[in-house]
């Protein structure tokens, strides 16, 4: 089984010793090779870093190095938004309103036959995409 990780899961892992117990336990139970992220996740993290840079450049640099490490470690497991994903996203959005990022992640998971791992499960439930919330596990 393959999993697409949302930004909130990747960010939780960064907390190390303070990581949510359910997230830590779930991650320990899966093979790293089965974990993927989307370019949407890297973009969302980048946006957060750039916003932070305006008020705390030191912390922004720390997070930037962390993002570089994430991109390096997921190198061949970072999925793009392509025509198929865009088409599915448009179809999912016609079912009911969905936050843009959640919708793009759900569409990516559906196209690649993955389970979406997110704290925001209610945003995508009922769309025919398998969802796992390890924060409640």
Question: Short summary of the structure?
Answer:
The relative contact order is 0.20. The model has no long low-confidence stretch (mean pLDDT 96). The protein has helices at residues 7-13, 21-28, 39-53, 57-73, 83-95, 100-111, 121-124; strands spanning 3-5, 35-38, 78-79, 115-117, 131-132.
Describe the protein.
Helix 5 crosses helix 6 (100-111). With 137 residues, the chain is of the alpha/beta class. A five-stranded parallel β-sheet has the order 3-2-1-4-5. The protein has a domain at 3-38 and 79-136: Rossmann fold. Helix content is 55%, strand content 10%. The mean pLDDT is 96. The protein has seven helices and five strands; from the N terminus they run E-H-H-E-H-H-E-H-H-E-H-E.
Which quaternary structure do these chains form?
single chain
Main structural class: alpha/beta
Largest sheet: 5 strands, parallel
CATH architecture of the domain at 3-38 and 79-136: 3-Layer(aba) Sandwich
The CATH class of the domain at 3-38 and 79-136 turns out to be: Alpha Beta
Determine the N-to-C terminus distance: 18 Å
Features:
globular; alpha/beta; Rossmann fold; 55% helix; 10% strand
Q: What's the arrangement of secondary structure elements?
A:
Layout: E1 3-5, H1 7-13, H2 21-28, E2 35-38, H3 39-53, H4 57-73, E3 78-79, H5 83-95, H6 100-111, E4 115-117, H7 121-124, E5 131-132
Parallel strand pairs: 1-2, 1-4, 2-3, 4-5
Helix pairs in contact: 3-4, 5-6
């Amino acid at each position: 089984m393959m999993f697409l990780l949302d930004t909130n899961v990747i960010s939780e892992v960064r907390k190390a010793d303070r990581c949510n117990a359910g997230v830590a336990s779930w991650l320990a139970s899966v093979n790293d090779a089965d974990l993927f992220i989307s370019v949407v996740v890297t973009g969302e993290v980048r946006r957060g870093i750039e916003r932070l840079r305006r008020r705390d450049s030191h912390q922004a640099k720390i997070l930037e190095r962390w993002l570089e490490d994430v991109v390096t470690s997921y190198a061949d497991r970072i999925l793009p938004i392509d025509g198929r994903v865009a088409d599915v996203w448009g179809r999912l959005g016609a079912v009911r309103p969905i936050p843009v990022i959640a919708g793009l992640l759900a569409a990516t998971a559906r196209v690649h036959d993955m389970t979406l791992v997110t704290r925001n499960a209610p945003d995508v439930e009922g769309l025919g995409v398998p969802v796992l919330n390890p924060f409640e596990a």
